[in-house]
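step: validate -> pass
step: tokenize input -> pass
step: predict -> running
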Amino acid sequence: MNFLPTIDTKLNVWTLAAVLTALYTLFGLARGWWRSSLGKRRQLIKAYRRMAPYVCHDYVKDLFGEPAWEHKQTVQKYGADARDEAGLQDLALTVRTWPLGTLGFLVTWSNEHDEVLMYSLTTRSRLFRPRVAVGPHRITLGRTPLASLPAPGPDAAGPWPALGARRFSYAEQHYFGSSDGYLDRVVGVSDAGAPAAPPIGSDGEGWGSDELAAYRRQARINSTLVVGSTIDLASVLPYGIAPDYDRVRLLELRHPARVALAGRYGSVKRSVQGWKDRRRGQ
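step: predict -> pass
step: emit ->
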């Protein structure tokens, strides 16, 4: 007498196929999430650390791909090496902006020879917290408060706060001389980044020392600008520390899954509201 159970081979094969299909689907979703978030973050930080003033635009394009926006903007630069306001000259630069997925923005400012004179990095996501150097200091975008850096000295230009009806920005300059390659480092808060703390209470003349210190303790840096030329920062800042928010705000930068879920949620919410309205009408 055979006491072995009967095994349905066909059922096991189809079950195995279903399990493998489900695992493959989950793997694809996990891989897509990784590439658009944590995996992409590492690639972007690594690429940004390869940037430097005066690199050519083609080098940046190899690192980040094609920019999404490109326009001309006129700034002012100092003549020769002396920073004399009487010697300021107009300079037309090409401004290019890259959306870094759902994580942030990269902006470059190039001259007529396509040399990158300035470049900025902005975070707009909790998943993108790059550590960058500001002279001898290390900051984390989106996390480090302005007060963690030395307060701008009396000889430093700025700071530059701006608060309008829709837009706001704040920027301050830091300069460390030969130890930092004679570069100007600018950090601040942009309305195109996150977290974004508007400089409320600042009028056209800026703040007093107490108000400025209070804001620097509260606001966290979400943007940094590296300047390697004799550009007059007052002709660029504060809004030049990051992309023009009016230019980038219409681009859908949310993850596709998040967009789909938001759309489904809106449809269900409208259906429930319509059902409630009909119930009230009865």
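step: describe -> The longest strand covers residues 89-100.
step: cleanup -> pass
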